[in-house]
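Practice problem: Glycerate kinase
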Amino acid sequence: MKIIIAPDSFKESLTAKQVCQAIENGLVRVWQDAEFVHIPVADGGEGTVQSLVDATNGAIIECQVKGPLGDTVEAFYGRLGGEHAHTAVIEMAAASGLHHVPPAKRDPKATSSFGTGELISHALNQGATKLIIGLGGSATNDGGMGMLEALGVQFLDKQENAISGNGIGLTKIESLSAHQLDPRLANCDIVIACDVDNPLCGEHGATATFGKQKGATEEDTKLLDDALNHYADLVEALMGKSIKNIAGAGAAGGSGAAFLGFTNATLKPGIQIVLETLAIDRHLEGADLVFTGEGRIDWQSAHGKTPVGVAQAAKAFNLPVIALAGGLGDNYQAVYEHGIDAVFAATPRPFDLSTAFEEAGVNMANLAENVARVWQCSQRS
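Answer key — structure tokens:
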């Protein structure tokens, strides 16, 4: 019997790799002779680097870079292993994330994506020829200007003075130059994990949709949206690419637009990128049963999250799919319409959140064992 175990991480308690092991620990009590295939998965957001590093026996590379406010922060990216040895995986939040900015200091006029550009440069220096970049969780609304500055793009004001790449700098741009843009980017395969379809500007754009959570006032919103409009016009004049209204251009404060305007990047749903990178179809061949899961399964799980992504891949092989979760939320049954055959929660009794985190591995193993025993009973009948 070949069993695929392909879950996401359980936030704040277990990595995806640890969830895989916990599930096997329970299943092996029933199926001692089974072949277990671990595929730690993520959906392009937080945990994607760790998931892909674990799945390919890669490595986490730690770096000191500029944080959103210009101070030095500890960041990281992943270098994948095996056949993906020249692939680097970067989460924008690692360098430019909202968690680097205390709530009292959140101001998208002041924050910059410069550190993300530094991570990209570091990965290129280490020989990366493919970049997978997750755009979620940024503290910035600079249109990717800071990131581009770190990679060599020059931004000038009316007096042709260089401008710092942050939100307020965005409002001062009168011209830009890509002559010093890192030439390695032209030959680099760049795939952007993007699960939002917001354009760069307007009522559904980067600032209007995400600016408030980053500290923008109503006045800031108009100021920065107007600046992004002007910025997009300058990019189109220089690069010949219209970036204002492309779905996903508004991701991460407009960083999606920066990648689309200055590189050959393509935008894809995060779960699609991860499953393609892990070649999940190759593992699904000859399998008998698939387990997936995440910390909480609810109606949102049906929209681009790991369990449904795994289930849809498994259904191409007509495989049964069981999802195991730490807990269940509103309308979790929505996932039944997307390839998941059964859902179970690992919480055996009422307890507080800290206990749930502490006991997650044990409870997941016990749940997996119970599911296997029920499955075994069904096969006898």
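Discussion: The first strand starts at residue 2 and ends at 5. Students who identified this feature from the tokens alone can consider the problem solved.
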